[in-house]
Design brief:
The protein is mostly helical. The termini are far apart. The chain contains 6 helices and no strands.
């Protein structure tokens, strides 16, 4: 039984490492020129302080693309899965988005960034 528990721990270790909030904070430096982490400051992009659970295209005072507004109206809510898809290839997830970012291609950076976004203020 101890061998099974030890094997499970070893197998789970890379997954836990892949969601490192502090490493995600470092990855966020790629985003900080356009996004704030509070719940009120819009920059070139909308604030991300309460992004988890938010309907796409709905931050008050931010001028979204028509595509992003339509994605939200169609039911796109930013959860871990949708953020992950979007951050890999924004223009593939929401064709017509104004976000001029090629995406996060490294799976560990992506997982860490999403983990960081999940802990931002609500």
């Amino acid at each position: 039984m101890k061998a099974v528990a030890a094997a499970a721990f070893v197998l789970a270790a890379p997954v836990a490492h892949a969601q490192d909030i502090e490493a995600g904070k470092v990855v966020f430096k790629k985003c900080v020129a356009c996004h704030a982490t509070d719940t009120t400051t819009n920059k070139v992009g909308p604030h991300l302080g309460d992004v988890i659970g938010r309907m796409a295209g709905t931050v008050e005072g931010f001028n979204y693309s028509r595509a992003m507004k339509e994605a939200g109206a169609a039911g796109l809510v930013w959860d871990e899965a949708h953020l992950t898809e979007y951050l890999v290839a924004p223009k593939a997830k929401v064709p017509g988005t104004k976000m001029a970012f090629a995406g996060i291609k490294k799976p560990d950076e992506l997982a860490n960034l999403v983990a960081y976004l999940k802990i931002l203020p609500e």
